[in-house]
Design goal:
Blueprint (H helix, E strand, L loop, with lengths): L2 H12 L5 H10 L18 H18 L1 H7 L5 H10 L8 E9 L6 E9 L8 H9 L10 H8 L12 H10 L1 H17 L5
Helix pairs in contact: 1-3, 1-5, 3-5, 3-9, 5-7, 7-9, 8-9
């Protein structure tokens, strides 16, 4: 099963809210399934974004299933909530990267060659996590809209990582108030640095 097939299977099996079908249709029309997850760090290859989303999903399911996690936080989330926040947390990266070219010397031949690389072309500069919440909210509606905890989890999934644009006090408060935000942050960091890191 390809990452795209696995994503669609998990999505369709677990996400049943109003507008979920339209959201998936939207993803299929974008570069979500071919885009990288970053320009040069984790998942910086074609299909890296969908693979990262799957990795976060599996890491989150594992983290939430640990007895110590349940004991500490009393976390018990539906399969739908887990799928939504994990699979869609980086939907903000849809149509975000473009391919450009630069010259690089071939170590074996000593000849300069034109090689492709990913660069950012952000046509919707609305932040990171907040942009994901914004896009999802355009599709899931009525009783199917994001819960407050799901929205905060997606918004703050980066935690205190480099690039966070929010005040640190807000980040800490959000992670304290919404355990799912902390859990998603842990899963995202585990996927990013241990499963995918720039040296993988």
């Amino acid at each position: 099963m390809t990452p795209k097939e696995e994503f669609i299977s998990i999505y369709n099996e677990n996400i049943k809210r109003k507008g979920a079908d339209k959201l998936l249709e939207y993803l299929l029309k974008t570069d979500f399934f071919t885009a990288p997850s970053s320009t040069r760090f984790h998942g910086s290859y074609e299909g890296g974004l969908v693979q990262h989303s799957l990795n976060v999903y599996h890491c989150l399911k594992d983290y939430l299933s640990r007895p110590r996690t349940k004991e500490l936080y009393g976390m018990d989330y539906s399969e739908e909530t887990i799928a939504i926040v994990a699979l869609l947390h980086d939907i903000c990266k849809v149509d975000f990267y473009t391919v450009d070219y630069r010259n690089k010397k071939n170590d074996e031949t000593g000849v300069w060659e034109k090689v492709p690389y990913y660069t950012i072309n952000d046509n919707l500069p609305y932040g990171h996590g907040e942009k994901s919440v914004y896009i999802i909210s355009g599709f899931l509606y009525g009783e199917g809209r994001l819960t407050r905890e799901e929205a905060f989890a997606i918004r703050y999934h980066m935690g205190f990582s480099y690039g966070s644009t929010d005040e640190r006090g807000n980040i800490g408060k959000a992670l304290e108030m919404y355990p799912l935000a902390l859990a998603l942050n842990v899963a995202d960091m585990e996927a990013t640095y241990y499963l995918e890191g720039s040296n993988k």
